[in-house]
Description:
Low-confidence stretches: none
Amino acid sequence: xxxxxxxIHAGNEPDSATGAVSVPIYQTSxxxxxxxxxxxxxxxxxxxxxxxxALEKNIAALEGAKFGFAFASxxxxxxxxxKLVKAGDHVILGDNTYGGTYRLFSRxxxxxxxxxxxxxxTDAVNIERAFKPNTKMVFVETPTNPVMSVTDLRAVSEIAxxxxxRVVCDNTFMSPYLQRPMDFGVDIVVHSTTKYLNGHSDSIGxxxxxxxxxxxxxxxxIQNSIGAILSPFDSFLVLRGTKTLAVRMEAHDRNGRAVAAxxxxxxxxQRVYYPGLQSxxxxxxxxxxxxxxxxxxxxETGSLENAKKVLESVKLCTLxxxxxxxxxxxxxxxxxxxxxxPLEKRQTLGISDGLIRISVGIEDIEDIIADLDQALL
Length: 377
């Protein structure tokens, strides 16, 4: 079956009790049992919920995975995956990672004995050199947040597997419509479902997709033991979102390309970060492993003063954290999404005070460009 067919139908069987086409919101904490040890597959809602189960089947199918687990946020999903490593283990982490992921490593996991090194994963040689005898995981984002660096997933997977290490990819920016990391050897995929999978800026959630049965058993055990589960209502909202994922991502991709091209020619823009531009250093890799380039664009204005003027002058684009909604969102990574990363490290990565990130929505492209144009005057 094709992607859109899977998105609409996987996990979305008509309700057996009523025939409802949309999976109902099973807003219950527990389930009646016919007798001791006799139930209908559901005992307690932290452990299993029919609405959440439908979503887990749906997104797992979209990623080409056997197993899927829905969590209360993208960070709780990432945290669950990192419980596959233990004290004394070493993790190679992409250096241009989301600020919350960096914070989890640098402020939490180090206190529990997990070692990590930040590595520029755009060059596979750097990954090879970073391996230690105790390296158990390579964790990458591609494209990265916010400067849109791209990692060759097949290359990193081959290197990691030769060392007996897992590869984890945060696929939030692309969604499974534009990129399926497991097709290139990645072991585990994580998402913030808050973003493109939901697509409507009205739900917080996270997801883990994987194929290894032993690792899946452990992730399921962690999900149940810690209880950072996605609620029935949020599961319903994300299921609604994935049904239109293909058409939304086509629109985001189309608008993203147009905005990037516009900004690349604008005299007040010093640099544009977008893997769909041929000037992007990993354009060829992105073209090979992605179905498109998406709606995330970043650009350099040259100073905090210039960035502030643009951010406070936009009228259609909304100044806000997050991304992936149908509406265009604009943000300032240095003080918002990546404020937890030390200043010196931000500057090294190109996350300057003049950098602006846009999550290009699916409004009429002429209106988006007109708004940016007037804000850049």
